[in-house]
Amino acid sequence: MHAQIRGFLDQAGEVILGKQPQLRLALSCLLARGHLLIEDLPGVGKTTLSHTLAQLLGLDFQRIQFTSDMLPSDILGASVYERDTGAFRFHPGPVFHQLILADEINRATPKAQSALLEAMEEQQVTLEGETRALPQPFFVIATQNPDNQLGTFPLPESQLDRFLMRISLGYPDRAAERTLLAGAERRGLIRDLPAVLSPRELLAAQHEAGRVHCSEALLDYLQALLEHSRHCGRYRHGLSPRAGLALLRAARAWAWIDGRDAVLPEDVQAVFAPVAEHRLSAGEEHAPGEGARLLDEVAIP
Asked: What is the tens place of the pLDDT at every residue in 236-272?
């Protein structure tokens, strides 16, 4: 299984150039059964990353373009009356796929954004009094443009908290950009990628990652980080218990990718900023760099 994981990172690195740390974080997020938020400027590869993940992992993929006039039924589906049968028939929306790309999620109104809340938390959708299970594995990758761009609606804290990680891709370095300019078109490369894992194997990998051992001392360290975020006085709200569980799952996945059967403090540190920073707000801003600052202030037991 670990050979396949290394093959995934190698193959993905041939499409998403110079972004190995972000690729590994995205894979860790999926192995931790979480959802991923990518915040960055248009045109840096957010959508390409989502297509690459779906292709390499053999997942049923659906892209949803969020717009200001979108309704919840455009995401979840609706019942339509059929004259031939004289009954209503439910037509599933695009959320009923294994990997969903919620493209430019913050261009939709909060009402449309909230349509994903139950799906992301409970892996199900309740419509018209009936609960329908979503396919497994189920993974949401959402992209959002910076809040200072026109036509955006900031994601509320309840929506942000559903994302296990938030990452940014940023501009490529000079060598990667030169290869990008001189090479083949990225979408063509994605179509030729072989699947390195099946959905069944991915579920097995998620199960294995969730069983990585976590010592009492490591839990002490994780708990110290949570408590410091609540009592340092810089944030309106510290990290919640759900954030602590997300951090633990992500650290286990990071350790599992390395082939280890126990979590180290370095694993927690590697995933801490992507897991924690979008959950911390100093005043009105989600300030970058707060993750590193917290890590510097809390000693390893």
From this structure: 888 999 999 999 999 999 999 999 999 999 999 999 9
Q: What is the pTM of this model?
A: 0.89
Instruction: Report the CATH number that the domain containing residue 252 is assigned in CATH.
Output: 1.10.8.80
At 179-199, the pLDDT tens digits run 888 877 777 788 888 888 888
Q: Domain range for residue 75?
A: 1-192
HEC readout, the chain:
CHHHHHHHHHHHHHHCCCCHHHHHHHHHHHHCCCCEEEECCCCCCHHHHHHHHHHHCCCCEEEEECCCCCCCHHHHEEEEEECCCCEEEEEECCCCCCEEEEECHHHCCHHHHHHHHHHHHHCEEEECCEEEECCCCCEEEEEECCCCCCCCCCCCHHHHCCCCEEECCCCCCHHHHHHHHHCCCHHHHHHCCCCCCCHHHHHHHHHHHHCCECCHHHHHHHHHHHHHHHHCCCCCCCCCHHHHHHHHHHHHHHHHHCCCCECCHHHHHHHHHHHHHHHCCECCECCCCHHHHHHHHCCCC
Give tens-digit pLDDT for 108-155. 888 888 888 899 999 999 887 889 999 999 999 998 877 655 567 778
Q: How many domains does the chain contain in total?
A: 2
